[in-house]
Amino acid sequence: MLESVLQALYTQSWSVKVQNKYFKALYAFPFEHIEDCFCLWLHRRRFINQAYLPVFVDSASFNNKQGHIPSTKYSSNNDLNHNMLNTASSWILMLFVIINSMSSARAIQWTKDNWAFGCDFVGNDLSNVQIRGEDCGLKCVQTQDCTHFTWTQWNGGTCWLKKGSVSKNNAVSTDDKNMVCGIIDNQDPPTTPVSSGTTTRYWDCCKPSCSWSDKVSGSNSYVKSCRKDGSSVFDHSNAVSGCDGGEAFPCNNQKPWAINDQLAYGFAAASIPGLNERDRCCACYKLDFTSGPVSGKTMIVQVTNSGDDLTPHQFDLQIPGGGVGKFNGCTTQWNAPGNGWGERYGGVSSRDACFGLPEAIRAGCFFRFDWFKGADNPTMTYSRVKCPAELVNISGCSRSD
Q: Can you say whether residue 236 is alpha, beta or left, with left for phi > 0 and alpha for psi between -120 and 50 degrees?
């Protein structure tokens, strides 16, 4: 009975009558350690902003058009009327109002990754899924229109994916320290519409074009470049590219990596109609693959190269061993063959061939055959997103728009 009541409360619109005052029940959750009892989160205009009300299933009455309670299914016309059985129940309500007021006033301790324990976001539910708490944020990243989330222990662990603009100020403190709430970094609406595009791959060992100054509109930021070892970072943007006889090359850590089986981060060159190089440099895009073995997977990339030789809507993924393409700085930097490792366009053809690459960048080559499943230029849809901190920390470049 409790499970069906909770399900109805989550999926329908309910009202609660307490001491002749009407409340709107936003949602409910099991009352810990008390059998057949659930907690309503209430809202009533002009009096109580938030309150928790404990309700025993057998003390609540339900009415629908037929005047009885369906055992497992409730209609949108149902109303929940809870009659306080005695004065003690009124004191319970007052106690929960006081506790919740104190709880709401308590500061929520946010982590640097924008999540916290003991908090919740009310309403704006998009969907829910039964997963572990530590996977809830990643599920939100992978779900279209999800901007924030709440995780509770309900039903063995439920991630409540939520939509709409939100800030940390919208979070409310709860007494359940196992609850988790969070905001997704890339919640800002895309500044470009979702478009269809193609992908290719490359690793040419040339200094990224976005590593020069004045390549990011409205910012002095630029992508880090490194010396020949790929780990000693230049402290300025004026070093000449190794592909032009200079000493600047891409840094070894500017290679892709998997966050989980469905999400990866990386870097790319890109050609986007209507955007010049200063508009593209250091912007991040969410690529949702639509063909090949990676169909359904997502990759978030930061644009670090201009992609002047690319066709419109093409993203050239920066993957070690993916082919040097038009330019080859890998012979200078790593003593690679004249056409780079493998074919000049396309690169190595097997995971075993990745062992021919320097150890410092080899993991990026493995990525292509592991997470990327050896996909050969898959199609995708893409949209602009806010850059994850992990990408910005590597590139050293961010935009203000």
A: beta
Name the residue among 184, 137, 189 with its Cα closest to residue 160.
Answer: 137
CA 167 to each of CA 111, 120, 396: distance values in angstroms, whole numbers, following the listed order: 14, 12, 25
Whole-structure pTM value: 0.57
> 104-119, pLDDT tens digit by residue?
435 888 987 788 999 9
Of the candidates 267, 361, 250, the residue with the CA atom closest to the CA atom of residue 315:
267
Q: Are 42 and 26 in contact (CB under 8 A)?
A: yes
| CATH code 2.40.40.10 region(s) in the chain | 195-395
CATH of the domain spanning 115-187: 3.50.4.10
Tokens of 82: 């809870």
- The CA distance from 214 to 237, in Å, is 10
Digit-coded pLDDT (tens) for 253-269: 999 999 999 999 999 99
Least Cα distance to 225 among 243, 198, 200 occurs for 243
Catalytic residue among 120, 204, 288, 316: 204
Q: 193 or 253, which is more confident?
A: 253
Q: Does residue 108 sit in helix, strand or coil?
A: coil
CATH topology of domain 195-395: Barwin-like endoglucanases (2.40.40)
Which amino acid is located at 362 in the chain? R
Write the burial class of residue 88 (CB in 10 Å: 0-12 exposed, 13-18 middle, 19+ buried): exposed
Predicted pLDDT at 305: 93
Higher pLDDT, residue 98 or 110: 110
- Determine the length of the chain: 401
Q: What is the pLDDT of residues 214-251, one digit of tens each?
A: 898 767 789 999 999 999 999 999 999 999 999 999 99
Cα distance between residue 371 and residue 142, in whole Å? 16
pLDDT of 2 reads 45
Considering the chain, tell me which residue range(s) the CATH 3.50.4.10 domain(s) occupy: 115-187
- The answer to whether residue 204 is catalytic is yes
